Amino acid sequence: MISVIPKVSVCVVTFNHERYIGKCLQSILEQHVDFEYEIIVGDDCSTDGTRNIVEEYANRYPDKINAIFRNKNAGAAQNYIDVHSKARGLYIAQIDGDDYMLPEKLKLQNQFLDNNKECALVTHQSVLVSEDGTTIGVRNKVRPDISNTEYLLKNYIFFVNSSVMYRKQIRDGSSWMHTRPVIDFTICIEDSIRGDIGFINSPLVAYRHNPNSLTKVKGNALYNLTNLSIEGFVRAKDLGVDGKLCDYAMLKYILKSTVFYARKGDVQGCKLFLKKYNKIAKIHYGIIFASTVVTRLPFFAEFLTCFFAYGRRT
To answer: Which of 19, 51, 146, 208 has the most crowded CB, counting CB atoms within 10 A?
Structure first.
């Protein structure tokens, strides 16, 4: 472990990333920076060769890498919490073990937070790569250099988890992660309440698209993730964000979820979240459609096409 207090802590969460973790760690070690940083790796009891690779790197760079190995799988959320709780840097960067950094990432994010004291966190665009490393394209479109909770609520998460760097002080003393379900959106809401969101309109991380991603989760497990995201809007309201804004953003998210499930041919999921929409809106969802999506006719038409096409199959 690095003996001095580092400027930046890089938190790596990994599970069964044997094919990718080496490239991830190497990309962090090759960052173009002039400040001290530490790397904290949490392996959540991988069943492949991930642990061996992490151990090899930790032995090679004992002053840089702090490796944490679990004897029992704790789950992604708990692994995230434990790894981040051990970070000592002024700024903390998150990266998943199957992604990797581009050389200027830490340098540019560090500079951004140094120069924009009002920002609690800074994110950026990402390059989308396939399992074999082939570049697919840039994943995130151009965004405002600085935005806030309102923008996040209206646009949902507009960056990947591996792009986030935040100020350690905004989570110091916070215990909510130990009492509420942890999901990316809720974390971002909590952070954005404490400061603005910076965005660098350049890709600084490679985000891995693979068949084990959350887009492949099905049934009740996927419904649960959608419900957890909905809880993020509720949490924003609890934290004092305008209630009408939270309700509007939440209903917009639920509508998009119904289209997502319709596209997948998941009639159960589509109907489930239509009912939730109806319950939250407190009036029939047909009336809500007329008032909230009349200016989004292509989206509305797509929803109707998907819903009725798949509805006929039941």
So the answer is: 208
